[in-house]
Specification:
Rossmann fold; homotrimer; alpha/beta; globular; about 350 residues; 5-stranded parallel beta sheet; 4-stranded parallel beta sheet; 2 domains
Chain lengths: ~350, ~350, ~350
C-alpha cells in the first residue's frame, strides 16, 4: 500500500509488508513518546479530530499523537452539537471540514459512515471507530503490543492466542483476528458463552488461511498453553434471558489465582480497555495490576506510537520526523519508572 | 475603520473601503489555506473561541483560521457548562476570559449579547453569531465568494442576486443584504412565501440606497436572469398553520432540472449551510453536487480566508504574515483536486 | 518541598518557603500574561486538562497558562463522555492518560478522587478541584492577590481579613484559611449565618496557630476595620427551612453604600467567582464594578500567573522560562487599560 494520501479505513487494506512498514515507523516514534526528544515535523498542520461519539481515551490518544509530531488539533466531541443532527449529509460535512484541516481522525456510531465520509474528503481520513464495524488502529496497536511483549522481530508466526469473552459483538477481536490471519500458523482459542461466540465467517476466514481454531465455553481449558490471552467484557444484557446469563456469570473472569493456576508462566494479558472495575463486573481483576505480564497499559502507550506512525505515513513525513528533532527541557523522570504497589481499596 | 484593536460586531461597521481592505488581506491568505506555505505570525497568541451555542462548522472554522496563523486556541462549546448558567453576567465573563486570551470569537444565542460582552472585554471580540441578530463574517465570506465566482475585481456593481426561502428569519440574508447595499445598482429578487418575506425595513433600506428590489412567491420566475442565487432553508414550523405550509411545500427547491430550465447558464448557487439533505427537506438537491456553479463548499473554504484576515487585521499583523512564512513538508496533494462523481445513494 | 515532579494536591503540602518560591516565579510570569513578551519553554509538552465536571473559567485558565509557556493542551470537559461512566477505575484512567501527557490538571466532583488518580499517574498531577475538598491553586492565587493588592513583599503578617457568606460549604475560604494559618498574627473575622459558620476544626486550627478569630452573624460589624473582605455566595437551599433563610436574606450583601459606610477606605474586595449577578442574588453588587478596591478580576488574572508558576515548577523549567523568550508582534494595547464606566443596565 502507498500510505501517503491514503484513507485508513479498514484492517482489510493492510498486507503484511504494510504492517511491517508501519511498525518500523512506530518503533522510531518511541523517543518522542518517552520525551527523550521532541519533533516539529508537522508544525503548522491541523488534525480535524472528529468524534461524533464520546471516547475520551481514543480521542485524546489521536490528539496527543498529532501534538507529539508538532501539529495543531481542532476537535468535536459530540454528534448532538453538530450539523449532522440537523440533517446534514456526511458528504457535506466531509466537504466542509476537509477544507479546514490537513488530516482527519473520525469516530461515528454508524457502520460505514467513516468510509462514506472519506469519499467526499479532500484530505486523508483515519477511521477511529465506526460503530460495530472497524477500528483499525486498535488492531494494529494490539498486534504491535503482542510482538513487543513476546520480543518477536518481524512477522508473528506460530503464535498461540486465546480470545475470551464477548466474541460476537467485540469489534476489537474481529479486527485483530483479521489482522493475525495475514500471518502463518496462528493458533486461536476462542473462549466464550455459546451465545456470544465468534461469527462463523471470521472463523471460516481463519481456517481458510491455514490457522488453527479451537472454540470452547470452558475458561480454564481455554487459558492453557497460550502466549497471549486477550480479554473482552461480557455484558449481561447480551444474553437471551437471565437464566442463560446466570449460567455464565463470573466464568470468564481472570484474576491472580486463576492466572497462576491455568495460564503458562509469562502469558501476556491484554484487554482493549476500558475495563469495568466495579465489583460486579467479573472481568479482569485489579489484583493483577502489578503483574509484569499485564500489558493493558502498554497497549494504550503503544497506541500513541501507532497513531503517530499512521499520521506520519499518510502525510508523507515518515522520513522527515528526525530532521525536525529538538531537545526536551522539562521533567520527564518518572514517566517509565515502575509504579509502587497500590495501596487502599483499588 | 481602524481594524487594529477593534471589535467586529456588526456588518453595519463596514464601509466599502473596509471591505476592500479585508478582501485584499483575505486574498493573501490563500497560500496558507492551500498549504502551499505556512506562517507563524501569531505563534504564542491565544484565541478564546467561546461558543455558548453549538456550531461545529463555524467553531472549527474560526479555530483553524487562528491555527493557520500560528496561534493557540482555547475554547468552550456549551452554555450549560459555563458560569453564565449560574447567573454570571456577561460583564463578569468578559472581564475574566479577556484576561486569558489575545482575541475572542464568540457565539451566543441571545441577540445583543456579543456586543454587551465586548464592552467589558480587554481584547478584540469577533461576533460569530448572536442569535437571530448578526454574524458578520458570514456576510463577508458570502460577498467575497460572489466576487470570486463572478471574477469581479473591486466593488460589485450591477449585480443581479436572487435570495430564496425563509427571508424573514434568515440572519444570513439580512446581513448580506445590508452589506450589498454599500455598493451600486444591485438588483435583488426576493423569493419567499408571503409569510416569510424580507422584513420591510431591510427592503426600505435597499430601496433608499438606490437598489432595485423585486418580491415574489414564484420560484420559477424569481430564478430567471440572475448572476447568483442564494438559497436558505424553510422550516415548516414557521408557518401559521399546516394548510399554509402545504401550499408552499417543495416550491422553493433547487435541483438539476429546475436549474437547467430556469436559471441563466453559470448562475452561481450559494447556501449558508448546513443544508438539510434528508429526502423530505426539498431544499438544494444533491444532484447538483458536481455542478461547477455550486459554490457552497467554496463559501466555507473562503470563510477560513475571511476569518484569517479578520484576525490578522484586528491584531494588527496583516503586514507581518509573510515575514513569518515557512515551507510545508507534508502531503497536501489532493486538497484542491476535483472530486470524482459520487457513487451510491448520496 | 521539591516542586519538580511533585503532585500538587492540597494546600497542606505547602510551607511558607514553598509559597515564597511559587510567588517569586509567578511574579516573573507577568511579562508573559501582559503579552510584553512570550516564551516557548514548554514547546512540545502536552497538558492533559481533565475536567470531569464543567468549569469554563478554571479549565480555560489552566489551558491558557500552559499555552503561554508554549505547550499543547488536550482536554476533556465532561464525565459523561468518559470511560469513568462505564465503570472504569481512576487507577485505569490515570495509567492510560498519564501515558499521553507531560502533566495533568484534573477536576472531579468526588473528594479524594484527584489524590487517588495521582497515585497511579506517571506524570505530575495538579488538583483543579475535587468536589468539596481542595482547590489549591485558588487559595494560592487568593493569597498572591492579597499581597499584591496590599503591596506586601514577603510573608503576610498582622493581616486583618473578613470572610463573609457561606463559610460552612465554601471550599475556597477553607483552603485560604489553611494557607493563611502558615503566617503570623492573622486576624480573621468570620461573618456568616449561624447555620453556615466555619467548621470548628478549621477555627481550632487557626487558634492553635496563634491567630485571632472573631465569629459573627452581623455583617456591618464584621466589615469594620479589615484590610481585605472575602465574599462568598449564600445559597438559600442551604438553610434548614425558609424561615431561617428569610431571616438572613440580603444581610450578607456588599454594595457601594454599605462599603462606604462600614469598610475602612481601600479595603480590598475579593470573591472567588463566579458571582451571581441576578437581581435576587444579593451578593456583591455591580455598582462596585468600577471601584479601585474591587480585586475580583485581578484575582482571575493572577490565577494565570500562579498556574504558569505551578507548571513551570513541577516540570522543572522555572529557571528556563526567560531563555526561550521572544518578541510579541501583535496588538496588545488595551489589555491593561482601564475600562470606561459601564453603561446600560449592567
Amino acid at each position: 500500500m502507498q500510505f501517503t494520501g491514503t484513507h485508513i479505513l479498514s484492517i482489510g487494506q493492510f498486507e503484511s509488508q504494510d504492517v511491517e512498514r508501519l511498525f518500523e515507523v512506530a518503533d522510531r516514534m518511541e523517543p518522542y513518546t518517552k520525551r527523550e526528544k521532541r519533533t516539529r515535523v508537522l508544525d503548522g498542520a491541523i488534525l480535524g479530530n472528529l468524534f461524533f461519539e464520546p471516547s475520551t481515551r481514543t480521542r485524546v490518544s489521536f490528539g496527543c499523537a498529532f501534538n507529539l509530531l508538532g501539529g495543531h488539533v481542532r476537535e468535536t466531541t459530540d454528534i448532538k452539537a453538530s450539523a449532522i443532527s440537523k440533517g446534514e449529509s456526511l458528504y457535506d460535512t466531509a466537504r466542509v471540514i476537509s477544507g479546514y484541516s490537513d488530516i482527519i481522525a473520525m469516530r461515528h456510531p454508524v457502520a460505514g459512515s467513516v468510509e462514506e465520509f472519506s469519499r467526499a474528503s479532500r484530505v486523508p481520513v483515519i477511521n477511529a471507530g465506526d460503530g460495530p464495524s472497524e477500528h483499525p488502529s486498535q488492531a494494529l496497536l494490539d498486534l504491535y503490543t503482542i510482538r513487543k511483549e513476546l520480543k518477536i522481530t518481524g512477522p508473528v508466526e506460530n503464535l498461540r492466542i486465546a480470545m475470551v469473552g464477548d466474541l460476537k459483538y467485540g469489534r476489537t477481536v474481529h479486527s485483530l483476528s483479521k489482522l493475525l490471519s495475514l500471518y502463518r500458523n496462528i493458533h486461536f482459542t476462542l473462549v466464550s458463552p455459546k451465545e456470544l461466540s465468534m461469527p462463523g465467517e471470521i472463523v471460516d476466514q481463519l481456517l481458510a488461511a491455514g490457522h488453527t481454531v479451537c472454540q470452547t465455553d470452558n475458561m480454564q481449558q481455554g487459558l492453557q498453553n497460550n502466549d497471549t490471552v486477550y480479554l473482552t467484557r461480557i455484558q449481561e444484557e447480551r444474553f437471551a434471558n437471565q437464566q442463560e446469563a446466570d449460567i455464565y456469570r463470573g466464568r470468564f473472569r481472570l484474576n491472580q489465582s486463576i492466572y497462576t493456576q491455568h495460564c503458562k508462566p509469562n502469558t501476556v494479558i491484554m484487554h482493549p480497555l476500558p475495563r469495568d472495575s466495579r465489583a460486579e463486573a467479573n472481568e479482569l481483576d485489579n489484583d493483577l495490576n502489578q503483574h509484569p505480564s499485564l500489558a493493558i497499559f502498554r497497549q494504550t502507550d503503544n497506541g500513541v506510537l501507532i497513531r503517530m506512525a499512521l499520521f506520519a505515513l499518510t502525510l508523507g513525513v515518515a522520513e522527515e520526523v528526525e530532521k525536525h528533532t529538538e531537545e526536551v527541557h522539562w521533567y520527564t523522570d518518572k514517566r517509565f519508572r515502575k509504579l509502587p504497589p497500590m495501596t487502599g481499596d483499588q
